[in-house]
What we know:
By secondary structure, this protein is of the alpha/beta class.
Amino acid sequence: xxxxxxxxxxxxxxxxxxxxxxxxxxxxxxxxxxxxxxxxxxxxxxxxxxxxxxxxxxxxxxxxxxxxxxxxxxxxxxxxxxxxxxxxxxxxxxxxxxxxxxxxxxxxxxxxxxxxxxxxxxxxxxxxxxxxxxxxxxxxxxxxxxxxxxxxxxxxxxxxxxxxxxxxxxxxxxxxxxxxxxxxxxxxxxxxxxxxxxxxxxxxxxxxxxxxxxxxxxxxxxxxxxxxxxxxxxxxxxxxxxxxxxxxxxxxxxxxxxxxxxxxxxxxxxxxxxxxxxxxxxxxxxxxxxxxxxxxxxxxxxxxxxxxxxxxxxxxxxxxxxxxxxx
Length: 327
């Protein structure tokens, strides 16, 4: 763990994790929306203090906002992870997960791949609701393919929570536009079902894991309203659990057994496999929401999953028709 000892509770696993989730959950439940935005930004800044990653390079493009992790040359030999952060489509930022992102960069680079992560600062609700974030994702993908010259099969989409849902929705949007698919997508605790209008319609895991996850289910209806703003919540680009997955690339789907979204995540895995999509699943039964992108708090469980995801990316790139290996 990278947190200093005075910040690190010394409880026996998994009580330390439950304590973190309880504090996080209670804080967001008690805060106003603006306070939650500020708090999440401060958490990201605090975690950045313990990251050994190099300074981040802003993306230099008029229609793409975000940062680069890694320093491989920007040319057609590049392999890229296009990452969308979480935050309920209404908060969060591209620099939230420095430790996780740098671990992937180092792992994949060590196998001979020129590799970067483009962590996207997509449009946030309520100021810029659906479909602004999806349009930003399409613009970023076109920037990688059309302007840098990256082959689509050397790009992997990735995201956590709302960013995981956005990554899946982006695949569905590419399908609508008849654009080539990327090599694969990583969906970490993806939020893919925004149809729920009240607590009575939530899957069992929302209620069963209400006291073990970091996300309070009470804030979900407000987040949905901010993002959808009158659009039909059954639109697969809003609730990608309803999408047609035929023709999608391989997926790596991650979930925690103690998170409120786990029932929807399991349903997503089943629907994707029934559509003929190759799915690699990682379900840690004792972990909460998006645990793997926070190794600062979830130690070996997070790092083990990060490494498994990294190995999955390496396999996707190795089996690509244009392998992207350095010469």
